[in-house]
Amino acid sequence: MDRVPPRVLSAAVGIAVLALWELLARTVYAGSYRLSPPTLVVVDFFEYRDLYLRNLWHSTKTAAWGFLWGNLAAIALAGVASILPVLRRSIGAIALTVFCLPFIAVAPILRLITGPGNGTPITLSALAVFFTTYVAALLGFDTAPGSALDVVRSFGRGRLAAFRRVRLRASVPAMIAGLQIAAPAAFLGAVVGEFTGARSGLGILTVRALGALHTERIWVIALLSTIVATGGYMVIGALGRWLCPWAPALDVGAVPAARQEPGLLNRMAALLAPIIVVFVFWYAFLWVFQIKPFFAKTPFDVWAELFTNADAAETRSSVFGALGTTLWTTSLGYVAGLIGAVVTAVVFVLIPWLERALMPIAVALRSIPIIVTTPVIILFVGRGLLTTTAIVAVMSFFPTLVNCYAAMNRTPVGILDVLKSYDAGSAAHVRNAYLPTAVPALLASARIAVPTSLLGATVAEWLATGDGIGAVMVIAFTRNDYNVLWVSVAVLTLVAVIGYWLVAAFELRTLERVAPGASR
Amino acid sequence: MAPNHLSRRRFLGRTAAGAGLLLGGGRILTACGDDETAAPATTTAAPTTTAAPTTTAAPTTTAAPELAAANFQLSWFDSVQFGGSYIAHQRGYYERFGLDVSLVPGGPGVSPDAAVAADQALVGISAANFTGQSVADGAPFKIVGVAMQKNPFVIASLSDNPINEPKDLEGTKLGMAFNNQLDLELLSELNDVDISKIEVITSDYDPAPLVNGEVDSLLCWLTDLPVAMTVQGIDNTTMLFADFGYAVHSQTLICTEESLANRRDHVLGLLKGDILGWQEYRTDTDAAAQLTVDLFPDAGFDLEAQKLQASEQLKIMFSADTDEHGFLWFTDESVQDNIRTLAALGVDVTADLWDRSLLEEIYADGPVLS
Fold it and tell me: Would B170 be classed as within a structural domain?
């Protein structure tokens, strides 16, 4: 098996999967409006080729604008944070908060600011890429070689010159890795944005296809989205290898959490500064866009709705009750996804031919926008609590798998040699070499997966299950209950930020024990 | 009101343009905006060149300067559901009354009430329950016209296992969107149905669960999922909520009290143009379907489905009342019915929510506008 070229294997597995798919669609699922045979999917694509390409172009164009603006903003702010370290924590807090905002509730609020048109999809798309690119760019600026920085300093030049001459150039590999992840994210933002009233795009076409029992269309859209999102990921990767061939492959999803400075005062500042900054931004947002009080709710309004208004108890029970449901289903899927990813990574390391055959598919699957995955998952698991869990599991599984496998693959040869000299079996390899090397990647993925899992959960609750905080937000929005909408956004964002912090804290403690020097 | 609105628009226009200039891409960015919000981008030669200035686009000049720009916020994605308005737009009926109307599509992430309250649309399409809730929450709306005399909610079932009356729901599985819980409770209460005997499964805008036998019926619109099933050759039965005591005006035209006071002529003109469009729609629904398919090539419409939807919705848009008084009319009696239904849904409104003065002015000379 080891001598078969990987491409042949991938192709063979691909063909086998397609054949099974065709068989199932024509037998078990025949006439079910769920699974379309691949042959009919291809026929449908060619029959409506122009329609698909126009809509694909529309969504791609929107995503490209969001990609541009979001990344520009992220890189600019990372630059500011690099030149003025005193602002770093505050900018980081804003970036993380933006990353943790629930899309489905933010979209209608954005729609009120940008009005009809492409403003909301582009903004949403920009918000979707912001955090990961910010983290990547900052990492890139930080990894500038100390010797080069010393040279700049020895010429008596300041931080700005160091940034321009050294850091900016040094950041290219990390930045490229960030932009790679941003490509599929921008696409997701654009497609969700279309739900705020567009005339073209794959997101709307999906909703229409579901309602019209046009099953082939859902599959064509899923495939096209996969191709575009994966294509963006690969093209940027290739661009990176061409620009800086010396740089090692890097995954931003595996960047360790930033270390906190010791000392009580620093800890307090670390906690307070971001909160204050977020509140200032909240007010600034309402003030700059002059949003009418009917829609615009301040932190005090949110507080009042939760604790002092006449219906505060009711709001609390509905929001927190729903939050409980969401957290329960999300945690199940989150843990299942992480465990599944580690197990699969181990299997891949132990059985290399399987990895060669399946990994390209996994890399592609991690780029599919959730909004397109959801109908496909609904087709199989139906609509219920399991749907949310399944979608969250899928959201956390693929990135973690890719990161953990890459880490295991980098297990130091020395360790493997020692194990070999003791004639250790597979189990010993896994226990003593692969799992420990994968720990940093696993923890970093687990941290990033907190907000993305909650995003997946709310989308699933909106589109499929109708419970949890996702449903509360949609009901609040359809009934124009902006108090509850803002309360839900605030609570959910806070939960995501806290979850992210908790995993980051756990990550730092663990890394200090198992891999000192890995955290920065 | 108006100045504030304008300045906000200008501000946004400027920020968008400024941001665009930063990259020398302003032109393209605003073009994106236009392309979306300009009234139906058409392949047929509809008069769409006079795109209204939008919040994302910098103010543009319109071809006919005397026309007042107005956004009309639709309640859902484009389809023949708004066929009469497309006709009005294409035939220039709105322009006849001095308006340059942009028809703005809705979607799951759009609240027409919010768009109207935020001055992004002069008139929006909503429903009495949503608008009633908004008004109860302090938004200053009026319902100035009712396009769907009967509420479009139905229970759709397969014809070999039909649900003909609410009582039939007992002991069956029903698929519905989660925000319809109150509606189902009300229907049950009105018809002495034991709701605990209905097993509800969440499902939205997808007929597959019914077709696959996972549920016995679906709560949906008369004009969407049942039409899709019929076009696919699946025999189905529909039971209208409106025939069993559920009186909620739907596809209602709303505007703010301020617009009614300050831009009364514009609201009046929009209604008049719309009425002309819908009168024409009624005479030839197939043509309206064809127009819809032609106007929105990116939607991938099935012409047969649009034709069926177009004719089906006649059943709920026109009635003896509209024949007697005119399209969009609502009687005092139906308003009272609505108030009762809404109260049962937990929304307390008074007859002040409705304002018939525009319609009374329009139909002063009889129930047909010419």
Answer: yes
Question: Identity (one letter) of the amino acid at B81?
Answer: Q
Question: How many structural domains comprise chain B?
Answer: 3
Of B189, B217, B244, the one marking the end of a domain is B244
Q: Are residues B230 and B253 in the same domain?
A: no
CB proximity A69 to B under 8 Å: yes
Q: What is the CATH number of the domain that holds B187?
A: 3.40.190.10
Say what the ipTM of the complex is: 0.83
Tokens of A362: 């996994």
Per residue in A334-393, pLDDT (tens digit) is: 999 999 999 999 999 998 888 877 777 777 676 666 766 776 777 677 677 788 899 899
Enumerate the domain spans of chain A: 53-286, 301-520
Residues 231-270 of B with CB under 8 A from A: 231-232
* CA–CA dist B2, A513 (Å, integer): 64
Of B283, B312, B270, nearest to B104 by C-alpha is B270
B120, A464: Cβ pair inside 8 Å? no
Please identify among residues 379-418 of chain A the ones whose CB lies closer than 8 Å to any CB of chain B. Answer: 379, 382-384
Q: Does A51 touch chain B (CB under 8 A)?
A: yes
Superfamily name and number for A53-286: MetI-like (1.10.3720.10)
Model-wide pTM > 0.90: no
Tell whether B37 is within 8 A of chain A (Cβ): yes
Architecture of the CATH domain A301-520:
Orthogonal Bundle (1.10)
Nearest CA among B219, B166, B153 for reference residue B197: B166
Q: Give me A199's structure tokens.
A: 């005339």
Report whether B306 contacts B289 (CB < 8 A). Answer: yes
pLDDT digits (tens, 9 = 90+) for B111-160: 899 899 888 999 999 999 889 988 887 788 999 999 999 999 999 999 99
